[in-house]
Amino acid sequence: MSGADAVGVGMIGLGTVGGGVAQLLREHAELYAKRCGRRVELRAVVVRNTEKARSSGLIDAALVGNDSTRLQQDDIDVVVEVAGGVDSAYALVADALRAGKHVVTANKALLAAHGPELFGLAREHGASVAFEASCGGGIPCVTGLTFGLMSNAVRGLYGILNGTCNYILTEMTQKGRTYAEALADAKAKGYAEADETLDVSGADAAQKLAVLASLAFGVSVVGDDVSCEGIDNLDLADVRFGAELGYDIKLIAAAECSAEGDGLFLSTRPCFVSADTQLGQVHGADNALSVVGDAVGHVMLYGPGAGRGPTASAVVSDVLNVAAGWYPQAFAAMGLTPDLHAPADKRDSADTVSRFYLRLEVKDVPGNFGRITTTLGEHGISLSAVMQHERKHAGDAFVPVVVTTHACRQGDLRAASAELKRLDAVAGTPVVIRVLDAGG
Ligand code: HSE
Description:
By secondary structure, the protein is an alpha/beta fold. It has helices spanning 16-27, 29-36, 50-54, 87-98, 108-124, 141-148, 163-175, 179-188, 197-200, 203-217, 236-244, 308-323, 326-333, 368-378, 410-422, and strands spanning 6-12, 39-46, 64-65, 78-81, 102-105, 129-130, 154-160, 227-228, 247-257, 264-274, 286-293, 297-304, 353-363, 383-388, 398-405, 408-409, 426-436.
């Protein structure tokens, strides 16, 4: 750090989160000075649209500019990246690290794409990269997982890591709103990414899982390692059938050790969780990370996962941890980051063992129910619950049949499902949704 009396902060971006960061640094200046032992001052803000930033009223207009080399000057110690995007953020962050500046970023897409390289660059130049805000908004899940649970060998992570998806699913299930209405509302409330397909496709949650799994398992995981399914193809009928069976639908990002403990299953997909479990109680834009550790057992971190205040809270905590000096020391001394790790040994999702929900559209004639249960039985799949509703209209030829299974290999269920699809008794493609019992 330069200068003993104050820590200089430069910021890239002044959007929703940047505005919150500027506000906290201004309003809590005295508190932060006490906590860090030195003042923490916002000294420059680099944006594309300088006019908009200057007239925003969020900061002193004199701090605003569009020349990113300002961030490399001597009076800047920490560069906060809250602009989002990958390519331009990468260039600016890399330049800051090369200039020896510590970096605080909220950008999971950047870390998922370039994390190992940026961590390596930081090490090379005596700097650090802090990234609490990249996962779980205001929940200290990076700090909790990395430092608070450092004593554990982690066996599994189960996260609700996308506030937009959780908000949409909650609005649809609790208030009967349509997907489009709920998504529009999530955007208006500032939860969604600029490109909301990143949220609803599961990609955002996959990127966050990549960051957290790298920390938890000491391997290098990138976003593309995570098998990814979003909520955009979810059928409301399944949400309702699940609710009848006592389940809530959640987009779950899971990283699970294989039975031998030497490989990882990595997925982001809609799952049913029992409504009365901790994960089942996470509603709206809230996020949660359930960690299964060998010493601690099961711990759940829970809180607001998106939005201005929560994300700014995490960003500023990182800034203060850097300003106080302990984070750069920990970063330099500990082998925590993915640039130091071997790639994850990813396992085929076919070998995941879990319970599943299966919905079939079945021709409503004698013997068909038996054909279905026989097919499942032939694949070694045992049924936990079965449900069939009467026809809605006298003329309906097909009725939905829903079953939940006992734990089985996903590969076996897929094979059974493919065989069921070929039966004359079944119309369309069976719907398969994981029923998650692990992780609380
Ligand atoms: N779009 C993200 C979400 C914002 O909805 O969770 C926080 O990363």
